[in-house]
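ASSEMBLY PREDICTION REQUEST
Request ID: AP-0331
Submitted by: J.K., bench scientist
Number of chains: two
Total residues: 358
Priority: normal
Notes: Please return the full assembly, not individual chains.
Input sequences:
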Amino acid sequence: MNWFGAYLLLGLFGYCLFYVFVARKRIREHRERQTDREPRAGDRQQGAIRILLGILNHLVGALLLLAIWPWLAWMEARARLGGTEGEPEEWSEFEVLDLFLLDELTLAEIELRELVDDPLGAAPKLPFGHLYPNWAEFRQLHGDSGTYRRFSGQYVGEWDIAWRYEGYVLLKKDGTRPYILTHRAFLGRNQ
Amino acid sequence: MTAQVGEILRYDGDTVRMCDTPLGDYFALGGRFPEPRFDCFSNTALWRGYVGTWEVLHERLYLVGLSGELVDGSNASLATLFPDYPDRVFAHWYSGTIRIPEGGLLEYIHAGFSSRYERDVFLGFQRGFLVSKETRINGSAPGGKHPAGYGIGAKTVFNRKTGGGQV
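STATUS: Completed
Returned structure:
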């Protein structure tokens, strides 16, 4: 057997495995649907079209798999061995770093600073206005369990987009730093 | 990405399209999404799933209307997001710059709010208060070739019921 024959045979074997897996899943789903459904007019015709489309899908799938299985195997092996050099890393969550920290405030001072008042009555007269539920949840969860600081810092998030984030952070004794955002400004795409 | 439908802004007696989404900041700062959520897959020119109507009144930015569809097929309104403020919401969370394209089209870019127009008016806001206004001249467009003001060139609308698409 030449190399090309072996190549096709391996692809075919992979496709068969894949097909058996998918077919078993489909049959199970079909049986589940059959148990709680009455047949309707037009179902038979639609069923025939579905079967034809299904066959076409499998044919295309088989041809594709025969052609590209070495590449798929290579990608899988690379992912398992951790060889992802050159690919973008997952974005890390924003963290309040020491260099972002500004003045220290009490809870009362924060609530006074963030009090919203609108002459047309278009916002609740509460700290953080329409965002009060978020603040209330934060306050209930963390209360006065540390030192509150105002912060302002830059963050590069998804799609390499840079933001300026501002808000309040609670420096807790256990080292964690829960925060609440009050402002974000788009700075541009990070080069 | 397809060019996106602008938000509507009433300002200085005019109704214009603006190329920013202050509600995006509301959600980013912890504002609650509606339940069920906006249907963001019905239209490629509206990935955010809604169009807000804004107004600058007494140097403040207000959200005065909202239209969109939720994933259960029902229509969204201002009351969907702000049940206690169904007519007017002060956008105190918003600090940023709103761009209002004006005049003829210089260059159509079928992505986001990227298209370029003869003029851009920039309205700067701090915590919902109007703090600055600037106009930038970008050039002049060939006369009468395109309609003035922001618009999109194409979109694909997906029909949930048939599963089909329409361009």
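REVIEWER COMMENTS: Helices of chain A lie at 3-35, 43-81, 107-113, 132-142.
SIGN-OFF: pending second reviewer
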